[in-house]
Amino acid sequence: QLQASGGGLVQAGGSLRLSCAASGLTFIKYSMGWFRQAPGKEREFVAAISWSDGSAAYYSDSVKDRFTIFRDNARNTVYLQMNSLKPEDTAVYYCVASTLYSEITIPSNVGYWGQGTLVTVSS
């Protein structure tokens, strides 16, 4: 089970940190990531971090240099730090887990989905 939290309303240029607590799986064996879905749009990949020590991470071009993904294996939690938020970042954000890493960008490769948390960025 993946429980995401931390969404809310923020002004453009502001920051938010999303959290996702995992249970019922061996956390260190899973790559973790985030997808998002804006109203009327398809779900899109945002960021991913590798299993175990999380030494590798990558991002979609739209969030690179603004968002940072990191994990705390002691807490079975993955985070998404979002800075310099833009109105186009408004979406429901979903936490995901997969036994794959680079292939996590493809929704069908995701093993677990969280319930989503809404981020709204006002202009």
Main sheet: strands, sense, barrel: 7 strands, mixed
**Portion of residues within helices:** under 10%
Structural class: mainly beta
Mean pLDDT: 96
Strand % is over 45%
Which consecutive residue ranges, at least 5 long each, have pLDDT under 50?
A: none
Radius of gyration: 13 Å
What does the overall shape look like? globular
Helical stretch count? 0
Order of helices and strands: EEEEEEEEEEE
Q: How many beta-strand elements?
A: 11
Terminal Cα span: 34 Å
Describe this structure in words.
The chain is mainly β. It has no helices and 11 strands. The strands form 2 sheets. Strands 2, 4, 5, 6, 9, 10 and 11 form a 7-stranded mixed sheet that branches. Strand 4 (31-37) and strand 5 form a beta hairpin. It is globular. It starts with a strand and ends with a strand.
Give a brief description:
With 123 residues, the chain is mainly β. The protein has strands at 2-5, 8-11, 16-22, 31-37, 44-49, 57-59, 67-72, 77-82, 91-98, 112-113, 117-122. The protein is globular and about 40 Å long.
Question: What is the element layout, followed by pairings?
Answer:
Layout: E1 2-5, E2 8-11, E3 16-22, E4 31-37, E5 44-49, E6 57-59, E7 67-72, E8 77-82, E9 91-98, E10 112-113, E11 117-122
Parallel strand pairs: 2-11
Antiparallel strand pairs: 1-3, 3-8, 4-5, 4-9, 5-6, 7-8, 9-10, 9-11
Short descriptors:
123 residues; 4-stranded antiparallel beta sheet; mainly beta; globular; 48% strand; 7-stranded mixed beta sheet
